[in-house]
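Lab notebook, bench 4. The sequencing result for the construct came back, and we need a structural model before the next group meeting so we can plan mutations. Quick request posted to the team channel:

Model the 3D structure of this chain.
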Amino acid sequence: MNWKDHNTRTSWFYIYFSVLRKFAHLEVLFSITHPTEAVA
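Done. Here's the predicted structure in token form:
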């Protein structure tokens, strides 16, 4: 039962981390496509 809880926690962390990575990637793309807005 303990390894199952640890597995669930790891998968949730992986989902959270992947979402953060996608968000950061979108922010980088936005700064590239909208340089003036990113600077301001």
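The radius of gyration is 17 Å.
Will bring this to the meeting.
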